[in-house]
Input
Amino acid sequence: MGVRRRDRPHRDPEVPRGGHPRVLRQRPAPPGAVSLLRILVSWLRELVPVTVSVDELAEALTAYGFEVSAVDPAPPIPGRPARGEDAVLDLEITTNRPDCLSVAGIAREVSTIYGDTITWPALADTPAGDDALPVTIEEDALALCPRYAASVAEVRVGPSPAWMAARLEAAEVRPINNVVDVTNYVMLELGQPMHAFDLDRLAGGELRIRRARAGETVRTLDGVERQLAGDMLVIADGARPQAVAGVMGGADSEVGDTTARIAFESAWFDPVSVRRTSKRLALSTDASFRFERGADIEAPVRAMRRAQQLLTEIGGGAPRGAIVDRYPTPRDRVSVTLRHARIGHVLGVEVEPGFVPATLERLGFGVDGEATESDGRPRWRVTVPPHRVDVSREIDLIEEIARHHGYERFPSTFPALVRPPAPPSGTLSRQRLLRRVLTAGGCSEAITYGFIEEAAGRPFVGRPDDLVRIANPLSEKFAVLRPSLIPGLLDALIHNRRREHRDIRLFEIGRRFTAADGETAGFAVALTGASAPRHWSRGQRQTDLFDVIGLVDRVCDAFGVTPAYEPVERNTLVRGRTAAVQATTPDTAETLQLGHVGQLAPDIAEARGLPADDEIYVAELDLRALTSGGSNPDRMVAAPLPRYPSMVRDLAVIVDAALPAATVRDTIRSVAPETLLQVREFDLYQGKGIPDGHMSLAFRLTFRAADRTLTDVEVQQATNTIVAALKAAHQAELR
Output
């Protein structure tokens, strides 16, 4: 059984912490992934006679930049027995190497690795001419299709030979009939997509390469009627579009059992145009996958001749007439100067001068001779082949030399330090501090996507126009930029709940985006379940508003900010359990809005898939406001330990039940002497002995003087002053 590396299990991304339950979170893979290339080793050996084992070949390809993610057993190929061990290699080709999306491309690399000679596939000896088929590239379409080749063949449609069908199936391409299979076989072998039209079903028996016209549609081979736009390129006959250029053919000219004459197509289409059309039509194919990465503009005629050779070889038909090649403005090949001294300077190792031209020539480059620099070292003028769309500079050629010289041969030496490393940026330091504080508070960090569903982001903006929409989203699940970090945390929380984790504390640091405020940095936390790890020695308390406020207090304290909480109403939070977090700037005494804290509205949680009876508490703060509202967290001030003892007084007062404890605390501090060190509420009581609509608040007052021991008289006088102020300001009664 072959296991792809991308399908193997991932490690749990939770921040390690002791004493708290593990929190599971999975970041979903983005949609639209395409399986890149599966090739038979026996097919590869037909082109390059490499004799190493399959495992050694797979390791070599991976080492030279073409990861073999799986080696699967090869199916039997009737009529084409393997020369030695056979297998199917599942290769992952990077996007900058479309030339290796074929057996021939990989064969070119293998021949360079092992020094073997390539035997290229046989081609039909068909001349070029204009008499076979009327082909026209309209003027406004030349930029999107600078080259188009076509030819005519008389065919006998039927099943493909067993060896061809088996090779296609090994590459996960479904055999259809001998004509269509020849085009797919050429694409896999040479990397050039092709198409076959039923010539007798083309109006006027002609092909016109043009832009689509307003209101035109085409029914593609998958049976879907597709609306075309004016910037899309189509292949049309004399009446209507018959194919979406570079993406998919049309059903009206599909090759079927009754087809007697076909028109082969082999062309070069603009990568940007193909990708734009593919995305707009939501239609990705093997052909579009190759064209949008860049094809070889010199390959169309070569691929056409190969298709004609195969069609004749399998007895499926015979070409009639010449190959029509519309290439009005041939492109010159790119030339790049490569200096031997520069190779050594970039790589840090000396490469033999003779190794350079030999390697480049095996890879298909032209080396036009050797000159000598002023220091006596050689340089070369290198002509880039058209299939290497990734090479345009000297550094690109040096990369090719480095790959085939062998990365494992580079010495592992640490660069010499000539100056101290730069200190981390302020942003990075603040994020590290924030992570340390929240992790110490029992939270695990989540990392979610910046793209979310529009329905998930809509409740977190004041107006729908504030959402920043993606012009070309991968799917509706990634339609807008997130206006808040909370939707992503909710999805992570849902993922954990569905895996039987009930006690969850998550945070995320990231960017938010709205049309009104632009891009802003912030952090958010989401809590649900038990407030502390379960233990047999005590009862279980559920997370409440004060737990999330406590986390915000910890963060603010770490940043040197004194927060204040003001009751507000927000449509995403529960009324009466929502507060705005504010702070005052130390220099200007300006009030800063840091963010909000509260219980998430049950309807939002339920809409995202959480049980409506789960209480979820969230907070989201702006990092820029938090930083500007506090002191420098890196500045530490040393103070001597107190020499004199403190004195404590407990004070319980009856006040209105609607009066916030913070207001009472502020009143105490406003009239207390400088010797009041700390005010902390430690009890709230409502019930017997307390009038209706009132509550009993108990405060612990700690007094200390830095230069003497306080007397009972001084402390009592301060306490009496505080009680009088509470009575005057809040009609408080001492219990």
Notes: Residues 1-35 have pLDDT under 50 and may be disordered. The longest strand covers residues 573-584. The first helix runs from residue 41 to 47.
